[in-house]
Input
Amino acid sequence: MSMAHLAGITRDEAEGGTADSKAGAFTIGDLAREFDVTLRTLRFYEDKGLLSPRREGLNRLYSRRDRSRLKLILMGKKVGFSLAEIKEMLDLYDLKDGQALQMRVALKKFQEQIGVLERQRQDIEQALEELHRTVDVVSGMLRQKEAGAA
Output
């Protein structure tokens, strides 16, 4: 299963290529609004080679492929992948080698990330337990002080 499949993007969408007409293109503002990201974020992803809008003068025009890649980038970030890891998986997807290599790499990365997130969940649960105990102790101490002052 590829990143595109997980993000609900068809192969046709992901391979959308460059849009030849304005009807198939998105402005930087269009994508920023649709995905609730800043213009700066989109320019940053472009600088990192994750998105490749074409230029018409000073304007950036994003293709359906760029839009799909942005959706994948944001999904990857949401589950904790670094931009370098996301780029590696997207670049493998672009190889069009029957997707076997991309699926193997993605599967390995997904399994590793599950482990990372499970460890983080355990750490968070432990921290919450400690905080709850501390709140109970401090609340008890405060009640005693307030009862003694009354």
Notes: Residues 22 and 76 are 28 Å apart (CA to CA). Residues 10-21 have pLDDT under 50 and may be disordered. Strands lie at 26-27, 54-56, 59-62. The longest strand covers residues 59-62.
